[in-house]
Specification:
This protein is an alpha+beta fold. Helix content is about 55%, strand content about 15%. It has a two-stranded antiparallel sheet.
Length: about 210
């Protein structure tokens, strides 16, 4: 008997951690000390908050270093920290630390930004709620994806896999485990939310499933 796929939304309550940075060294200390939920928020959740943009994905640390501090070289290093390769928050933290430490070792001075441009470390407490949509076969699944908002795509492609420490998104896991659609599951697993906005990702998922139905 097929276990239905339950589409879920993710809602986040953003809180301040008490840490802030006005130069690269204080940014480094903050990254080393803040809870993992803050690293997740600034690396992964920035995707959801910018789902309507079409530019290259950039985490919050890279964006601040580039736009507020004006350190283009370090901004590029931080942008190169690929969220898709950092499913464990510890991995993302370590790579960010390595990038900043390596850069600080090659520079003799640091720029301090005014109070209005400080980086404030925040974190997000996430709540999951059902959308009321479910699917028991491919046709229902395609319709369910089409009806999803970006928050649901973000949950099933980013939040849930990261929490469980796995690369496969919820959709691929269900398609393979419940419908034995291994090829379809594999095709969806190759999609990444970090090189396209969440609306386009939703449409791409639906198109792939609809092509399978045809």
């Amino acid at each position: 008997m097929v276990r239905p796929f339950e589409f879920q939304n993710a809602f986040s309550l953003v809180t301040h951690t008490g840490y802030a940075a006005d130069d690269l060294r204080s940014l480094l200390r903050g990254i080393q000390r803040v809870p993992g939920s803050s690293i997740f928020y600034h690396v992964h959740h920035s995707l959801f908050r910018r789902h309507f943009t079409t530019g290259e994905f950039m985490n919050d640390f890279a964006r601040w270093v580039l736009l507020s501090v004006g350190e283009e070289a370090l901004g590029e290093r931080l942008s190169a920290v690929d969220p898709w390769q950092c499913l464990a928050i510890r991995t993302a933290r370590d790579r960010l630390v390595d990038a900043i430490e390596g850069y600080l070792g090659s520079t003799e001075y640091g720029i301090r930004v005014p109070p209005g441009k400080r980086f404030y470390f925040t974190a997000a407490r996430t709540f999951i709620a059902p959308t009321g949509r479910s699917a028991r076969d491919l046709r229902e699944f395609a319709a369910g994806v089409r009806g999803c908002g970006p928050d649901a795509i973000f949950h099933h492609f980013v939040i849930a896999p990261t929490r469980l420490g796995r690369r496969d998104n919820d959709f691929s896991v269900w398609l393979e485990g419940e419908l034995s659609e291994s090829a379809l599951a594999d095709e969806l697993s190759r999609l990444t939310p970090y090189d396209q906005d969440l609306y386009r990702l939703r449409d791409r998922i639906a198109e792939i499933v609809e092509r399978r139905l045809a």
